[in-house]
Amino acid sequence: MFETGEGARSVVVPLSSGDPALLTPIAGGAVHCAQGQAMGTDWRLRVVLTDPERIVAARETMARALDRVIAEMSQWEPDSEISRFNRLGAGERMVVSRGFAQVMDCALTIARISDGAFDPTLGAVSDAWGFGPSASPLQAPERVSAGPGWQALALDASTRTLLQPGDLMLDLSGIAKGFAVDLASMLLTEAGFAHHLVEIGGELRASGVRPDHQPWWGDVEPAPDALHEASRIALTGWSIATSGDWHRRRGGNGARDWSHTLSPAACAPVADGPRAATVLHPGCMQADALATVLMVKGVKDGIVFADTHGIAAHMTGPDGTGHASAAWRKML
């Protein structure tokens, strides 16, 4: 949900995060690009190289990250870790990969601090409303049950063992994409591509700087009919994620359509809520999940939540007005 063109007016410049050595540009480097599709969306890579042929290796590194996350967390892959866990019977346990355990630990932490506004156990709800592997309904389902809920999940971090309480379906769509961005960035840095900007479906993470000493800039895609200025953000060492109500809608056939953001309390899409929520965070996985939290909580409670936890966030209300947390305002 981001663009990197001209036109943004409100400039957000956080202090650089990460290795200070990455603030020095690569001598003789130039920006090269690669792009593709994965996880049901588009991805783009911008990377500084002195040898243009190295873009092939950078692209392969991106592909490894994406393939790994799909194998672990895609509900559309019957042999993925998440699909196998969702098929377990009550009381059965499963040893999961390090990446899966890392995402689950983060998801459960954010579920706790948000009082369940983020819930990774809405797989059945998501599927019923048309955002899972099953065919999308043309009309709203009458009643959907979420199952036992996130409180029933038990993750043993020391053994990476996850307990299936029974009739629980995980859905990590609200956090897996952000994790994929973080993973791709980490693998790129390890492979020698330390100066880069990774985008997967609008979630971004940047490392290092451009050859002209400038940070990597990301322009937040504004909600339709937004009454506030769009934002341009310096992303050196930072990640950003936006959740909006105008993408990935379902329904139709003469009936009102609905947003992909689900209310765990109602087991239904959020109705008449914020148009968008953007979160700036060192980790894209965290930014991804926290943006969902704000959409579920609404503008008033969302900004209070962001201020309580020191989160840099901006929200667009149902009426198109802009609302920023204290941490966001300090970066303007």
TrEMBL record:
<feature type="binding site">
    <location>
        <position position="288"/>
    </location>
    <ligand>
        <name>Mg(2+)</name>
    </ligand>
</feature>
<dbReference type="InterPro" id="IPR024932">
    <property type="entry name" value="ApbE"/>
</dbReference>
<dbReference type="Pfam" id="PF02424">
    <property type="entry name" value="ApbE"/>
</dbReference>
<feature type="binding site">
    <location>
        <position position="292"/>
    </location>
    <ligand>
        <name>Mg(2+)</name>
    </ligand>
</feature>
<dbReference type="GO" id="GO:0046872">
    <property type="term" value="F:metal ion binding"/>
</dbReference>
<comment type="similarity">
    <text>Belongs to the ApbE family.</text>
</comment>
<keyword id="KW-0449">Lipoprotein</keyword>
<keyword id="KW-0808">Transferase</keyword>
<keyword id="KW-0460">Magnesium</keyword>
<keyword id="KW-0274">FAD</keyword>
<keyword id="KW-0479">Metal-binding</keyword>
<protein>
    <recommendedName>
        <fullName>FAD:protein FMN transferase</fullName>
        <ecNumber>2.7.1.180</ecNumber>
    </recommendedName>
</protein>
<feature type="binding site">
    <location>
        <position position="174"/>
    </location>
    <ligand>
        <name>Mg(2+)</name>
    </ligand>
</feature>
<dbReference type="GO" id="GO:0016740">
    <property type="term" value="F:transferase activity"/>
</dbReference>
<keyword id="KW-0285">Flavoprotein</keyword>
<dbReference type="InterPro" id="IPR003374">
    <property type="entry name" value="ApbE-like_sf"/>
</dbReference>
